[in-house]
Amino acid sequence: MAVRTVGGTVISLPSLGAGGKPLRDAADIIAQAARQISSRYSRRIPASVRVKVSGDGKTAVITAGGPAAPQAYTFEGRNSGAPIAHPVYGHGPRSEWTWRNQIPVRPFMKQAVDSTIDQAADVWGSEVIDEWARRAGFR
Questions:
Q1: Concatenated DSSP letters for the chain?
Q2: More exposed terminus of the chain, fewer Cβ within 10 Å: N or C?
Q3: Alpha-carbon dihedral of residues 88, 91, 97, 100, nearest 10 degrees?
Q4: How many CB atoms lie within 10 A of CB 18?
Q5: CA angle, 39 then 42 then 45, to 5°
Q6: Model pTM score
């Protein structure tokens, strides 16, 4: 599973051929936490959090932001924790805009991963083992 924040990939886990459901269930846990954390200071960011699972079930990507919530990128900050600058006065040519760092940085996606990774891994692992056992003939 790849959890991609606006600043880069945070975590990656293989699916071990168990299909997309275990991966989706694990990613949904992290995505729900990201929605809850970002709802403390935004109405638009939580609605922009999405989970996509590849057709082969080997990759899940959690994203936030886009046209409906462009501030998600700025709030998340860089993977290093450094802030991202945003325009304060964006009138006229871009070279003349006034830019300021987003302070405080609010890394909602990183916090979501950090706070739910054990739960997500347990759900993923349990479902993978159950699928493996089912395929091996155990009931």
A1: -EEEETTEEEEE---TT--HHHHHHHHHHHHHHHHHHHTTT-SHHHHH-EEEE-TTSS-EEEE--STT-THHHHHH--TTS---EEEEE--SSGGG-EEEE-SS---HHHHHHHHHHHHHHHHHHHHHHHHHHHHTT--
A2: C
A3: 0
A4: 20
A5: 85
A6: 0.78
